[in-house]
Amino acid sequence: MKSDLPKVLCPVLGRPMIHFVLDALEAAGIERKIVVVGHQSELVEQELASRSDSIEFVLQSEQLGTGHAVQVCRQQLQGVDGSTLVVAGDSPLIQSASLKKLLAHFGSEQPSLLLGTLEKDDPTGLGRVVRNEAGQFTGIVEHKDASEEELKIREVNMSTYLFNTPDLLWALDQLRNNNAQSEYYLTDCASLLHGEGKKVEALAVLEECEALSINNVDELRLVDEKMRAMGYA
User: Fold this and answer.
1) 133-147: per-residue pLDDT in tens?
2) Which pTM was predicted?
3) Residue 108: domain span
């Protein structure tokens, strides 16, 4: 990011990007928020200390993948009977309206896992959501592993997960890091739960703008421009 700041504190429209994520969660009615911190965690905690909504911080001392980032929250999630929403802190264009749709569907259908997905005109580089002939979720295949037919799929995984918490805790215990990166992937929870016969669903309710996350200064600039065009400023 060409900055000494933790990525989630890099400014969009002059404001640390993580605030936009937390604003969306608050607007969607999420009451309890857990922020996983790592590099320069004290700066993130200091920045968020002034927010009126209560936030819990959990330290991920080693960065061992998205699954590991949720694994370090096990203690905080123990005994929770309801749902747990997992989103990324570098996606300031997350929309509260999309989250409300996911929460409503989850409330009526009660799956073990509901993925928030997006129909994207150009899904290049993103994980495809695979369904059977009946339209039911069967798995996620990464772009590099997709067959020619799977590459035609336009529905993509956007790292927005709504779990039944006990099922999430079970899946976290099953995660393995036997991959090229030696990391624990949260994406694997979908296949683990599906393999156990649990109800896993994907709902394509995310808006096009929610595909824009931030991994470098060019994407930061693009998101800044998009948010100005959408009237955030």
Assistant:
1) 999 999 999 999 899
2) 0.95
3) 7-229
